[in-house]
Amino acid sequence: MTRHWSLRTRLVLFATACLIPLVLVVLFFLDRGIQRNTEQIVNSETTISNLTSQVVTGYLNGVVTTVEKLATQPEIVAFSDPKVDTTRVLALTRDARTDLAGLLIFDDKGALVSTSGPAPKTLLDSIQVQLAQTIETGQPAISQPISDTEDRTVLVISVPITTASQAATGTNAPTPTPTATPMPQSGSSDAAQGKNIGTIAAVINVSYLESIVVPYARGKTEIGVVSKSDVIVGTAGIAKNIPYFLSSQEEHINQALEGDSGNFTSTDASGSGRLGVFAPIQSEVTNWAVIVTSPAPGTYSRSLVTQSLVALLLASIVILTLAVIFGEFSARQLRTLAARADSMKRGDFSVNNEPVGGGEIRELSIALADMGNQLATQMHGLEESQVERSHQAEQMRNLLRRTLRLQEDERRRIAGDIHDAVSPLITGALYQARALQMRNGASPPAEREETLANVNSLLEQASNEIHSVIFDLRPPDLDDIGVVAAIEAFIQTFSRTGLACRLEVVNDLPPQTPEVRLGVYRIVQEALHNVVRHASADEAVVRLESTNGILRVTIMDNGIGFDPAMSYRPTSLGLLSMRERAAAIGASFKIVSKPGGGSAIIIERAETGDMLSDVVISELIAVTGTDSAATSESPGMAASDPAPDRPHVTQERTDP
Fold it and tell me: What distance in Å separates the CA atoms of residue 408 and residue 236, rounded to the nearest whole number?
């Protein structure tokens, strides 16, 4: 058996099918978003690394330039002269460069000569190698981060003090104000020609570098300024685990220290993916690199995808729930309509036909209600018709029984008339004829003449009786002189019953077919018999008239009258017989009466000339068929069957 999906199932499947492309579109745009975010992050990190490199390089070059200018000052060059106050020059420089934590002057042996600012022993011990390198090479140098006793981390930039500077400037030259100028080229002519007599060192707080680097780190972006083996400046994420950062980024740090730049992917200590870029810091005194990293889109995209899928799942649940609810709501309305249709199929039209739903479903329910009302009306009409047909069938059966009874009564009457009236006459004539024959001519002539006269009289009486019986069966005047003369002869005979009856003819009647003549005659005959039996009348009038092509026959009496509505009782077989005879000849039948006011029976028929009405009769017989035709709806079925007349005709034809 084929399984049909319900409307609710179809809606759920449709909603699911709509969600599939929605999920694919969301995943596609998430993937595209991740790609765009990756590109944006790399571009942003590259910009941050370039800015960091420029800021750090500019700052360091500015410090080196300031210290080199300071190293050319006469007071500084003559630092070994006890009469020269180098402390003042150092203090003035620190006042101008508040970012410097201290300025230190060392002799060529690395001994501290003068200072402006703190100079803890740990700091002095940490830079001895750097100072010796500066005296030996004559080039500026920068230390690794140093933690001093004041719990701070500093960097030390050392610049050589040469005798060439003293020769070039003189001892009486004024002291210039330190400025951040571009860093001089290493290996200048003064440095090359002079002798390195000492070093001047500038102490830089790493916190100051952090203050100019960290602001570029927004959100979860990490920035690290690194050397070969240490992190100079690092944001919080890098500072928490410096060894892991150096080991994990060793390859990229080395590439940056070699002057390369690029981007990479890596993982942090927690295992989360990160995107990063590396770039060198372009400074003569340093060999540093800058590393910038940010969370990879894949790290937070997983949570974004998860959140998106959860949102899609919730949306899908809501959509499917709405589809189920809407499908159930619509299906419930359709099931209601289906139940109504099923009830109407079973013939139950008492269901509630109020419109349900909206839109097309409401239109369907209204159409179904209209159809149900029409079917109910038709069924009611059919039931009434069936009751009427049953009533008519019962009347037909009663009429048939009455007709058969009348036929038998008529046969008995004819048999009695023949037996009582005709048979004795013929028998008497037969006996006299045989007696005359037995005498064989021996009778006297007078006696023989008398006997023959008696036989002739008896035969004449028998003939008259036979003609009387034949006239009762079918008046010969119907075929000879017409229906008017036949009715007139019947009325004259019928007047012997004591009912004063007369015939009125208005205008000449047109020619009628034998069936019409017989039908009119029998209706008049039946009507007058009813008047005698039931009306208690003393006068009756039969009127035949032709007006405007209409043949009208009216039978009126001055009897007690009756209620015409009672004429449809099963016992009113006389009226039913007349009504059926009228229908058989294509005439209308009407009863006008009221209790105590007499009655009138009126039949009207359109004139058809000599056109035979057998066509109508044959059609009725063909439709109604045999005895089962008694249940036909046609009111003229019984009257179209000339059963009451045929026995008379047959008797007339078979009567010897």
Answer: 133
**Helices and strands (H, E) in the chain, number of each type:** 22, 16
First to last CA, the chain: 78
- For the chain, how many residues are written? 656
**Whole-number Å distance between alpha carbons of 266 and 272:** 8
| Stretch(es) of the chain classified as CATH 3.30.565.10 | 475-612
Cβ-based neighbours of 338, under 8 Å, separated by 6 or more: none
Beta strand spans in 95-168 (E): 100-107, 112-116, 141-142, 146-147, 153-162
What whole-number distance in Å separates Cα of residue 400 and Cα of residue 397? 5
CATH code linked to domain 211-299: 3.30.450.20
Task: Judge whether 127 and 158 are in contact, CB under 8 Å.
Answer: yes
| DSSP single-letter state for residue 177 | P
What is the per-residue pLDDT across 152-197, written as a single tens digit (0 to 9) for each? 888 999 999 988 654 444 444 333 333 333 333 444 334 445 788 9
Give CATH 3.30.450.20 domain extents, the chain.
72-206, 211-299
For 475-612, which CATH class? alpha beta
Distance CA 340, CA 18 (A): 34
Identify the pLDDT of residue 452: 80
Closest CA to 543 of 569, 497, 509: 509
What's the DSSP call for residue 607?
Answer: -
The owner of tokens 């023959």 is 452
Question: For residues 283 and 182, is the Cβ–Cβ distance under 8 A?
Answer: no
For domain 72-206, give the CATH number: 3.30.450.20
